Every structure is written in C-alpha cells, then in structure tokens.
Amino acid sequence: MKFVIITGMSGAGKTLALRSFEDMGYFCIDNLPPKLIPKFADICQEVDGEIEKVAIVVDIRGGKFFSGVSKILDDSKLEPTIVYLEATDDVLIRRFKETRRLHPLASDGRPIDGITKEREQLALLREAANHIIDTSEFTGHQLSKAIKQKFQKGYPSFTVNIMSFGFRYGIPHDADLVFDVRFLPNPHYINELQPKTGDDTDVQQYVMKHKIAQDFLKKLEDMVNFLLPLYKEEGKAQIMIGIGCTGGKHRSVTLANILSEKLGETEKVNLFHRDINKGKK
Which terminus, N or C, of the chain has the lesser number of Cβ atoms within 10 Å? Predict the structure, then answer.
C-alpha cells in the first residue's frame, strides 16, 4: 500500500496538494491525529486490497494531538512517503492576509509569530521529508502539476523547467540552478530594441552577435548536459534552471529561449518568462 503523509507550513498549499492526490485515486484524509495513523493503516489492510493508495494531511492544526508525530511515524511499520510543503515568510503572510484567516499558532493575530513557531515545530518532519516543495511561486495549477509529475504514472519521468527572470524582482525560490547574464551587452540601451523582448528576432540577434554570448551559451549548454544525467540518477523528477538579467526582458529571455530549443531536442522542457511583461507602461 502506498502511504503518503502531506505536511508543512500553513498556507503552503496542503489542501490543494490533497486534492491532487484525490484526483489520482488516493483515499484522502485531512488533519488526521497522528496517533490514529497506525490504526487507520490497519483498517486499510483489512479491506482486502480495496484501498491501495492513501494520502493524509498531518499538521499543527491537530494541536496537542500533533505532538510526537515524528516518533509515531518512526515507530510505525508504514514507511510513508513524506511530502513537505513550504513557502517564504513574505508569501505566507500575504496569503493569510488575502484569505483573512488567522494563523493557527498566532494567538495575537500576527501571522509572522505563528509562522516562526510552526517552522520550529515542523523542523523534524521537514528533515525526514522525501519531497520538499517550495510553493512560493506556484499557482494552484502549477502545484497540482508538480504533485502529479512526482506521483502519477504516465507523466514524463524527468522535466527540465527553464525560467527567465529579472534580478530586480528577486531570484526564483524554486530554482535549482541560477545563471546571471547581466554581463552581456544590454539591448535596453538601444532605442529601437528597448520596447521589445527576447522573443523578438532582432533582440536575439543583437544579444547573440557578441562572441561573449556565444561562448557563454556553449558553456551553459555543456554544463546542463553534464548535470542532467546526474540529477536523473539521484531520482529527481524535474529541475528548474533560472536565467536572470536585470529586468528579465531581453538577455535572460533570449538565452532561455535558445537553451530551451536546444535541450528540447532530447528532453521534455517547460519554458517560463516570469518578468517579461513587468515594467511596461
């Protein structure tokens, strides 16, 4: 029997994750007291294989029932797969403000106090987790896709995600590799190119006509092709490559487009331009 424990920070998307498991045919339970997990597993075993996949959310909403969860899981014979969802403090605070909900551990109503306490209480579970997913940059659809890529048969075994971004807007939280291309000649200072993006041919030609860009692209491609088999061997389902310039509009988009095209010949590639439309008047 496949047994998945979903845990992590309040506001990080555990409810959405549980729905994704339900879509994949898992028997799902939200906020089950940890002490009941072994008993529930026994019940599942007694129904003659009718329940083959189970996903359970366990988190600090359980209050006193949540204490000792790590020891309970260690003592059980389940060997569950633990999925831990997290996000940055700023993102979690924003989500609580948007939903107008109080954090379960914030007795005085300040989300940051509850978030700090929660990280401390979940430290052991995070350390034991098989999968840690940072949902800071995820939409609900993207989180669902990430869950299904890891757990649903039929999804590609490995995916290369390439994201262009602007450093002025922050580095992507879920990036495995980050490459800075701010040293390349900048089309922003060419009047006719400034309003365009790296999706435009003349911007790409301007960036790539310089030998430094050509040399960097070759070294970048060699580096990624060297690393991909190693990531696959480690059992990763996907990798996020971030390519950043100042505003995320010209140079990073150009390099991300070209790298995506080259890797797409042998790999499944998803391409994202996070900041390409930012700063437009």
Answer: C
Q: Based on the fold, state whether residues 94 and 7 are members of the same structural domain.
A: yes
In a domain? residue 281? no
**Residue 11 among known ligand-binding residues:** yes
Was 13 annotated as part of a binding site? yes
Looking at the structure of the chain, the number of domains it has is: 2
SS3 content of the chain, % helix, strand, coil (to 5): 45, 20, 35
Per-residue pLDDT of 207-225, as tens digits, reads: 999 999 999 999 999 999 9
Same domain, 127 and 194: no
Contact assessment for residue 241 and residue 176, using Cβ atoms and an 8 Å cutoff: yes
Same domain, residue pair 66 and 179: no
Identify the CATH number of the domain in which residue 131 sits.
3.40.50.300
Q: How buried is residue 140: exposed, middle or buried, by Cβ count under 10 Å (0-12/13-18/19+)?
A: middle
Q: CA 238: distance to chain centroid?
A: 10
Write down the mean pLDDT value for the chain: 88
Identify residue 129 by its one-letter amino acid code: A
Give the C-alpha separation, 204 to 251, whole Å. 8
Q: Is 15 annotated as a binding residue?
A: yes
pTM confidence score? 0.56
Start-to-end C-alpha separation, the chain: 55
Q: Any known ligand binding at 235?
A: no
Residue 208 in marked binding region = no
Q: How many residues does the chain have?
A: 281
Q: Is 248 annotated as a binding residue?
A: no
Between 49 and 22, where is the model more confident?
A: 22
Q: Strands 159-166 and 238-245, how do they pair?
A: parallel
Task: Please give the residue range of the domain that contains residue 77.
Answer: 2-151
